Amino acid sequence: MKDYLTLAETSEIIGKSKETLRRWDKEGILNAVREPVSNYRVYRKSDVQTLLGNLFDEIVEDDVSNHVKPENEYSILELFAGAGGLAIGLEEAGLKCAALNEIDKWACQTLRNNRPNWNVLEGDIKNFDFSKFKNKVDIVTGGFPCQAFSYAGKKLGLKDARGTLFYEFARAVQEVNPAICIGENVRGLLSHDNGKTLKGMISILDEIGYKVAPPQVLKAINFRVPQKRERLILVGIRKDIDIEYKYPKPHRKIYNLKDALKKSELYNCDVPQSKGSKYPEHKKEVLDLVPPKGYWRDLPLDIQKDYMGKSFYLGGGKTGMARRIGWDEPSLTLTCSPAQKQTERCHPDETRPFTVREYARIQTFPDDWEFAGSISQQYKQIGNAVPVNLAEEIGYSIIKVLNEYYVKK
Ligand SMILES: C[S@@+](CC[C@H](N)C(=O)[O-])C[C@H]1O[C@@H](n2cnc3c(N)ncnc32)[C@H](O)[C@@H]1O
C-alpha cells in the first residue's frame, strides 16, 4: 500500500483544489513532506485520512467567494428543466430565464406555480423549434439524459446523434446560437461507452461552433450543498469568443445534515413540517437497528444475510444499503425515490425517510419552492435536480465570461 499521495491525488480525494492544498500547507492545516526516494513534495496518506475525518465537523472559516454581479441582463434557455433546480440557482446568481422546456407535466406545473411569469414550454423537446430565440438568449443549458450513440468510427457529427436527447440539446444550441452552452450530467457520462459518448458530444459541439472546456465533475459539498452529490459539467463557448472558461472555486466550508435541517448559515429556521413516505414495516424493523452513520454492516449477521439477500454474497461495499445519515455529515446523494432498496437514507433520529421538505433542503431548494403532484412525483422532481446552490455557483462562473465578453465586444 502506498504511504504517500501526490498533490493531484490528495486534491482528488479531499475535493479541494491544488491551490487550496498549497495554501493549507503554508497555514499548517495539511503539511506536505519530501518523498524519500524522489524528493517530490507529497502528502502522508495518514495525514490526509485524519484531515478527511475532521473535515466534516470542523468549523472552517470560508473565505472563498465566486460571487460576481452581471453587468448586463443575461438570459437563459433552460432545456430538460425538471422542477427548476438549475434554473433557480442561475436566477439566484442574477441570470434571467427566457424560456424553459420540460416534458413532465408535474414538473411544468411546479415551474408555473412558483414562477407564473416564466415561459414554460411543456412537451417533448423534439417538437420545439427554438429558432425564435436566435441571438436573443446568452446561454442554453440542459441536463439531457445520457444515451449511447451508435458510433460508426471516426469523428461523430451532429446528424449521427439523431434520435438521442443530446442531439436535441445540440440542435437547440445550433438554432439559438448563444454565447455559452452548458450541459450537465452524472459522473457516469465520463466512462459511458468507454468515454466515447462524451468524446462524441464534445466533437458535435465543436462541429456546431463551440469550444468545450475540459469537462469537470463538481462535488456539490464544495459548493454550499450538504450532500455528496456530483455533477459533470460540460461548458461550450462560441468559437468567436476568445475567453477561457474557469470553473467556480470550491468553498472551504462543508455543510452537513444539521445545517440542512436546523437553523444554520444555510437556513434561518428549522425545516418546515411536511409529508413524506414511510418505510414498510419489515424495513423499519431492520433500520431501527442501524445507528447514525451506520449501514447494513452494523446489523447482526443473520439480519444482514436476510436483508441483503443475494447482494450479501456479491461483495463490494454497498455503503448506501440500510444507511442512516448522521447529523454531522453531509447526506449521501438523494435519489428519485427515498425508500428504495440499495439507497436508503434514513433520518438520524427517527426511522423514516426524509420528508419532502427535508429532501428539498438537502438539495438547497428554498422553503417556499413548492412541488406539484403526488408525493412520489415531488420526490422524483427533487431527486432529479441540480442542487440550487451548486447551480448558483455555476451561474457566477458564466456571468464572469459574459461580463468579459460584453466589455470586449
Ligand atoms: C435530470 S432532470 C433535469 C433536472 C433539472 N435540470 C433541475 O435542475 O431540476 C432531466 C429532465 O429531462 C426531462 N426530459 C426527459 N426527456 C425529455 C424530452 N424528450 N423532452 C423534454 N424534457 C425531457 C425529464 O422529465 C427530467 O425532468
Secondary structure elements and their pairing?
Blueprint: E1 4-5, H1 7-14, H2 18-27, E2 33-34, E3 41-44, H3 45-55, E4 75-79, H4 85-93, E5 96-102, H5 105-114, E6 120-122, E7 139-142, H6 165-176, E8 180-185, H7 196-207, E9 210-212, E10 216-219, E11 230-238, H8 257-261, H9 281-287, H10 301-308, E12 323-324, E13 345-346, H11 356-362, H12 375-383, H13 388-408
The structure holds S-adenosylmethionine.
Q: Keywords, please?
A:
409 residues; alpha/beta; Multidrug-efflux Transporter Regulator, Chain: A, Domain 2; Rossmann fold; DNA Methylase, Chain A, domain 2; 3 domains; 8-stranded mixed beta sheet; 13 helices; binds S-adenosylmethionine
Describe the structure in your own words.
The chain has helices spanning 7-14, 18-27, 45-55, 85-93, 105-114, 165-176, 196-207, 257-261, 281-287, 301-308, 356-362, 375-383, 388-408, and strands at residues 4-5, 33-34, 41-44, 75-79, 96-102, 120-122, 139-142, 180-185, 210-212, 216-219, 230-238, 323-324, 345-346. The protein is of the alpha/beta class and 409 residues long. It has three domains: 4-55, Multidrug-efflux Transporter Regulator, Chain: A, Domain 2 (Orthogonal Bundle), CATH 1.10.1660.10; 75-255 and 387-408, Vaccinia Virus protein VP39 (Rossmann fold, 3-Layer(aba) Sandwich); 257-383, DNA Methylase, Chain A, domain 2, CATH 3.90.120. The longest helix is centred in the C-terminal third of the chain and has 21 residues, at 388-408. It is globular and about 60 Å long. The termini are far apart. The mean pLDDT is 91. The structure holds S-adenosylmethionine. It comes from Psychroflexus halocasei. It is an enzyme of class 2 (transferase). Keywords: Methyltransferase, Restriction system, S-adenosyl-L-methionine, Transferase.
